[in-house]
Each structure stands twice: as C-alpha cells, then as structure tokens.
Design brief:
By secondary structure, the chain is of the alpha+beta class. Helices cover 24% and strands 46% of the residues.
C-alpha cells in the first residue's frame, strides 16, 4: 500500500450481518501496524444509522494478527481511544474487513477507561452463535487491550498523535 491510498473499511457482525463501513486513507506503517486516516467529514454508515464526522481520527490495524481495531480521535470526539474487539482484520486488496465482536475498550476525555457492551456480547454470543474459540479470543483481546489502555502501554501512550497530526495540519 502507498501513502494516501484510499481504503474501504468494512465491518460486519457475526454471520455476515452488515455493520459499520467507511472510507479512509492509508497513512503508513510502524512497529504497531498499519495506520489509516479518517479526516473530519468522513461518512460512516451502518444499517439504521449514518453520520458525517465532526472529528478526525486514525485507525490502527495491528500487524501481529491481534483481534481488534483501535481508533484514536482528535479533541472533537467524545472518546480519545475507542478499540473494537474483532476477528483479526484481513486485507482484501484495498478493503479492510473484520467482524465486530461487540466488546469495546474506550478511553474518554476525562481519562476514565471502560469496557463497554458486555451485555451485547453476552446476548450475541447466544443469538449469533459465537463459537467457543471466538468467545475466548474476544475476551482475551478485551482483557489485554483494557490493561494496555489503562497503563498507557504503546500504542496507547500518545503514539497515535504523530499520525493524527498528519490529518489536521
């Protein structure tokens, strides 16, 4: 991939149910993974909801096969960090695909860190029929990311700032 290349992010829910989709720009890669940029004005859509962002953000796609996608947002967003637990993201040319597994780790502007949507995860693991290995992967990933965000381990230590600054300059 090359800098500024258009990327389509396609998230689904288990069972190939449509979820969030949006366009981003490829920013580059570092030791943490591939970075995608979503400037102010990015159009996000999912069934029953859509919006145009009034904030800029960057998305980290881990290179190590980790089961999450991490978003780091500018000061206009409610959350500084928003990490979706997913199946390991997969590249399909210039399309990034992952299955959202409900659990989210969120760091709010006030510094508080929460694990969100545990109720949705519990419901979907039954109604969508998550296999036991997928449940274990999502729970393990959420625990690891929660600990990393709380302690400020890279890339949750401001590493994203340099990538984010490229969108707002």
């Amino acid at each position: 991939m090359t800098p500024d290349q258009p990327i389509r992010v396609v998230m689904s829910k288990w069972g190939d149910r449509p979820h969030w989709e949006y366009d981003a720009r490829y920013l580059g890669v570092d030791e943490h993974g591939h970075w995608l940029g979503c400037p102010i004005g990015t159009f996000y859509s999912r069934p029953g909801m859509e919006f145009v962002s009034d904030f800029a953000g960057v998305v980290l796609v881990p290179v190590d096969g980790a089961a999450h996608l991490a978003a780091f947002n500018d000061a206009h967003a409610k959350a500084w960090i928003y990490v979706d637990m997913t199946t390991p993201p997969v590249w399909d040319g210039s399309v990034l695909r992952a299955v959202d597994l409900d659990l989210d780790v969120i760091k709010l502007r006030d510094g508080s860190v929460v694990l969100d949507d545990e109720d949705e995860f519990a419901e979907h693991r039954v109604s969508f029929g998550y296999p036991p290995d997928v449940v274990a992967m999502a729970e393990r990933s959420a625990a690891e990311v929660l600990a990393a965000v709380r302690t400020g381990v890279a890339p949750y230590d401001g590493t994203a700032d340099r990538w984010l600054s490229s969108l707002v300059e």
